[in-house]
Amino acid sequence: MSVIRTIVLGTGSYLPARVMTNDDLSKTIDTTDEWIVERTGIHRRHIAADDELTSHLALAAARAAIADAGIDPQEIDTIILATTTPDNTFPATAVTVQAELGLYHGAAFDIQAVCSGFVYALTIADTFIRTGQSKTALVIGAETFSRLLDWTDRTTCVLFGDGAGAVVVTGMEGAGTNADRGVLTAHLHSDGRYKEKLYVDGGPSSTQSTGHVRMEGREVFRHAVVNIAEAINESLAATGLTADDIDWFVPHQANKRILDGTAKRIGLPPEKVVLTVADQGNTSAASVPLALDTAVKDGRIKRGDLVLLEAMGGGFTWGSVLLRY
Ligand code: ACO
């Protein structure tokens, strides 16, 4: 049976030049490189310059993805930007990217699912493409997450970083089998009962301010391993594939311990897991496309490989996308 599949034409990413190490952090808060590395696997993270906005990071990643895809940007009819740190409360940061790319047609909008944002955005793009709403879409995850941090709170500020990643996706006919290129299945979840486990204590409607990230780290950790494994198993069950079939696992880069725990739970060997958390920290919605681009550009992920993306974040939100690159 012939079906429309959403295939990845190109990937791109951008990291701000400034690097902040764990030792840098230990000069201003009561922490050590040893503690951070042992509990999280993070060694350093990138921090946007004062005049760098989320749209700047997003645009750089988008331009790289468009160049990699080798398409005329005018072919893009949809821009979906996943972010928790928009330039302004409105308009959507996606319209700034749209204008900077010289696109004056189609639709551009932001979506908010915190660390799961890119998995949500890619799933929306896949639905748009399969239903004919879009032909070619630019999907971006971009964050200046450092702007939401309370730099005196050692339990959160050591975890996050800034960055952006993007993919260009388009519709292509497939046979409707697991051998097709493109998105094979996608699964999204949220459960608002846990919204106070990880949240920002401000916003336009509640405090008329931006607020700072607050988190119950242990609770997030506990739920993350269970929820992520559930989303992965759903993708496998929907396709009849097994963990052995997966070539590359590209998870949201929250914490190396969460990723090790998840990989073990679903029976994936560590060498199949793409890890960028050591050098980038948790870049929220940007982490999955950043990791994807890293492994594509260094030659690990090749055309035809089966790639499993997953994420979990505030809300809680979580989900997975299984695709053949
Ligand atoms: N440096 C030194 N000590 C610290 C630091 C720090 N940066 N942060 C906390 N501590 C201390 C605590 O104050 C506590 O001290 P106490 O025993 O005297 O009270 C001690 O270390 C242990 O604290 P815990 O919070 O119990 O430490 P835990 O082993 O749970 O590790 C961590 C904390 C790393 C946050 C862990 O819970 C975690 O990774 N949780 C997942 C959170 C996450 O990844 N969030 C990202 C967003 S959600 C997502 O993307 C999935």
Walk me through what this model shows:
With 325 residues, the protein is of the alpha/beta class. The protein is built from 10 helices and 13 strands. It has 2 domains: 3-174, Peroxisomal Thiolase, Chain A, domain 1 (3-Layer(aba) Sandwich), CATH 3.40.47.10; 182-324, Thiolase/Chalcone synthase (Peroxisomal Thiolase, Chain A, domain 1). The strands form 4 sheets. The chain has a 5-stranded mixed beta sheet, with helices on both faces. Strands 8-13-12-11 form a 4-stranded mixed beta sheet, with helices on both faces. Helix 3 (54-69) packs across helix 4 and helix 7 (217-239) runs parallel beside helix 8 (256-266). It is globular and about 60 Å long. The model has no long low-confidence stretch (mean pLDDT 97). Acetyl coenzyme *A binds next to helix 2, helix 6, helix 7 and strand 12. Residues 31, 35-36, 39-40, 115, 154-155, 158-159, 198, 215, 217-218, 220-221, 224, 252, 254-255, 258, 282, 312-313 line the site of acetyl coenzyme *A.
Task: Describe the secondary structure blueprint for this structure.
Layout lengths: L2 E12 L4 E3 H5 L6 H8 L3 E3 L7 H16 L8 E5 L10 H8 L6 E5 L5 H14 L5 E8 L10 H4 L5 E12 L7 E9 L7 E3 L12 E3 L1 H23 L8 E4 L4 H11 L10 H4 L6 H11 L8 E8 L3 E8 L1
Parallel strand pairs: 4-5, 4-6, 11-12
Antiparallel strand pairs: 1-7, 2-3, 6-7, 8-13, 9-10, 12-13
